[in-house]
Amino acid sequence: MRILQIFLLTVGFYSLNAHDSQRIERAQTEHSLRNVSQDIGHIEREPIGHLNGQLRTMYIGYHQRELGTPNTYATAVGGSLNFISKDMQGVSFGAELAVSKDLNFATGERTQGKNNAELSSTDGRYSALSQVYLSYRYDAVKIQAGRILIDTPLADSDDITMIHNTFSGGVISYEQSGFSWMFGHLSKWQGTDAGLDTPWVKTAANGTNFGGVSYADGLEFNLWYYNITQLTNAFYIDSGYLYHLNQTTDLHFGAQYLNESQLSGSGVNADIYGVLGEAFIGDATLSFAYNYASKNGVGESSFSGFGGGTLYTSMDTMILNNITNNRSAAALVGGIGYALNAIHFTYAYGDFSGNADDTGVKAHIVEQDIIVDYSYKEFTCALTYSISQDRQSSVKTANDWERMELLFAYNF
Questions:
Q1: Which domains does the chain have, with CATH numbers?
Q2: Is the pTM of this model over 0.70?
Q3: Which one of 209, 385, 402, 411 is CB 3.0 to 4.6 Å from 378, fit for a cystine?
């Protein structure tokens, strides 16, 4: 779950009746196309005293257009097993084991550079005790310490492949009258975005301190601060509003701002602005998102955070931060979605452009994503097909490829 992340780009693959609370909840918790992908494999964790988890099989393959670059692919099996104890005078504990193993017969040959390491590491296997924590709750206050799962704008689970992100640290949260407060310290993290070859790497030289508040009750609001030691101080704010137009139509609007100030000469500086708009019309969704990053200095770039990033225009693979080094950049994403009973269709088109940096080099990358998913009881399958094109270069580059992802998941 993404903790009350507010005005958000559903890009639509869950469109429901205007009076259905699930649609409203989704509009208030999705954030970008990347979060749509993340939600497909979401695990509904049982409350206290039960073992539960998810079995997952996944294939990801790239067809590279750059001359001399081999196509890569991998197929993995694995999943997660979770346990949350019963509450004993406010105290409980939880644990999670996450595993992924490549199927050699359906994975590219490693010695030829044809394996895709993003599912199970370059060795083709990965396992971690991804969560082990103690929790204490008193009224509206909750404290967690250990290896934990959190979802905030710049630190999130980003559960879009085999292994989601989790963090080592401690958090304290408080919920009251529509407000949710959270403060904490994160020392290490693991998961796909942290890199599967070396689990539990530092979030920063001396860890990351953060705090924030969210509000969701018609008006939506987020305000967060991160001290990522010796890297950057990050300030994030967003706000949005969901408007019920009539029996079949809802409108959703939002705006966001991210400021990053470098520490210890790290070169991480950024000012990024964003807006979005979306319409839920019957079983269809139309969406629009725009982000702009102002130019930073020589050798300076933005930091997307620990996870999938918080920008509205984040696609399945492409994010604006990839082209912000020493230049101003912008991203424009449009999407349509339609729900046909248990089948959901999504199409999104993203245009990412960067003005000339100090050496005169520009950037222009277009990504298109098509997602089809189907759910029945505890079973989910999804197909994602992505096309990336480097529109700036006259020859094919590392940004020219097609990507296919197939997911089968079963919750128990």
A1: 21-411 (2.40.160.10)
A2: yes
A3: 411
